[in-house]
Structure formats: structure tokens, C-alpha cells
Amino acid sequence: MLEALKTLGLRVEDDKTTKQAVVEGSGGLFPTGRKSNDEVNLFLGNAGTAMRPLTAALVAAGGNTRYILDGVPRMRERPIGDLVSGLKQLGADVDCFLGTNCPPVRIIGKGGLPGGKVKLSGSISSQYLTALLMAAPLALGDVEIEIVDKLISVPYVEMTLKLMERFGVFVEHSANWDKFLVHGGEGGPSSPEFRASSGIKWFQSPPKCSCGISNRGPPYQVQRQSPLNQLTFGSREYI
Q1: I want to staple 10 with a disulfide (CB 3.0 to 4.6 A). Which of 4, 5, 57, 88 is the partner?
Q2: Do the beta carbons of residue 90 and residue 41 sit within 8 Å?
Q3: CA-CA distance, 151 to 79, in Å (whole number)?
Q4: Are the C-beta atoms of 63 and 30 separated by less than 8 Å?
Q5: Which residues belong to any copy of the Enolpyruvate transferase domain (predicted)?
């Protein structure tokens, strides 16, 4: 996944000693989406947890560039058709061009993810829902997701929503986890309200993220003073 992000033009530092990675943001659009309309090929090995969310992210933040996402032979047996169908319902130009509902996946960038309503299966993998949820804040319009069957692995979806809250994005959902609403254009709020937990230690050092704290809460109110362009995260803290 980190190598794919580098290919997309992001600055990535991976410290295996401290088990930390630093990914420098690019303002809501992958650099490859700004530079050219050439086709970008991404090889993701057998990492399904990279293939699925990255597919959705590229639709939302890949600009007008064409992308091909592929992997090892085993990856070509791992289904992604439900996610592709969901992205198409939201206006994306994306397909499994071998006709197998598995990678390789082709994305033809259209300048963003339009948004809208989508019906999605949750019975095969919660990763399809997770991918849509994480890409939806970058959509041009609101995204409404309806699960048409039983959603499996609800705890993983809860983890996704809690992580999104740390970035200032709050997802509305029904009590039985079959309907979700994400407001588009929330990928970079200028004055976000974070529901902080003990895991968000950067609130203790506002100069590092160029922000001012107007309410020492909780809840915490943070006013951006300059763009947040870098986040550091460590696997030891969250795994």
C-alpha cells in the first residue's frame, strides 16, 4: 500500500524500527491526478485491504487520470464486483475489465465522485462499505448508502467510523446498521469539531498541526490556521 501511495506521488516515510509511517497529504487530490492524463499502473500484490479502499479513493481523488489496479494471480480471484457496482451507482467510470468481478480494476477519472444513493451488499465483506465510507467525504455531493442484506463484521465498520471521527468526519447511520449518510466535501474542513479520545495526543501540541484550540473540552473545537499537510501514525497504538 505504501509503495502504491508513492507511485501516486505522495511523500511517504516508513520507519520499520518504530513501526511508524508518515504520509504527507496533497490537498484532497493525488499528485498523479494533477500532473497528467497518462495511465497509472498500481501493483498491490495480494493485499485486498489495499485494493478495495484504494479503488474508491482513486475514484474520488484521482483527478482525470486513468488507473489500473492489479496484483498477484491470487488477487485476481478475490471479488471486488460489489464495490465496483456501488461506485458506478455514484457516477464513477470503473470496471473489472476481464469480466470476472475481480481485479484488475480500471478507473477512468472524471474529476471526482459525483455522489448520490447506492445500494450495497454487506454479506460478503464489510471492506466494500468501509471503502465507500472513507471515500465519500471527498465526493462532490452527499452519499447515501443502503445495505440490502445483512452487514457482517459490524465491529470493523464501527472502527472505521471512529477513525473517520478523528479526522473530523461524522457519519450518520441507522440503529440496525443498514443506512449510512456521509456529507460530501468534508475531506478538508476549515473548522472541524473532533470528538477526541485519549488516542489523539496531537491536541496537546497544537503548533505541530498549525491550529488553535478555542475550547479545551471535550468536545474540542479546533480552528485551522494553515493547511494540515502531514500526519504521523504508529501501528503500535491502534493495533
Answers
A1: 5
A2: no
A3: 17
A4: yes
A5: 1-187
pLDDT of residue 176: 96
pTM of the model: 0.77
| All three cell numbers of 216 | 479545551
Which residue matches cell numbers 480500471?
106
C-alpha cell at 71: 496484483
| Rounded (10°) CA dihedral 25, 232, 188, 140 | 60
Residue 199 grid coordinates:
488516542
How far, in Å, CA of 12 to CA of 23, rounded? 5
208-231 pLDDT, tens per residue? 444 444 444 444 445 544 455 555
Torsion of CA 207, 208, 209, 215, to 10 degrees: -40
Give the tens place of pLDDT for each residue, 50-87. 999 999 999 999 999 999 999 999 999 999 999 999 99
CATH topology of domain 1-198: UDP-n-acetylglucosamine1-carboxyvinyl-transferase; Chain (3.65.10)
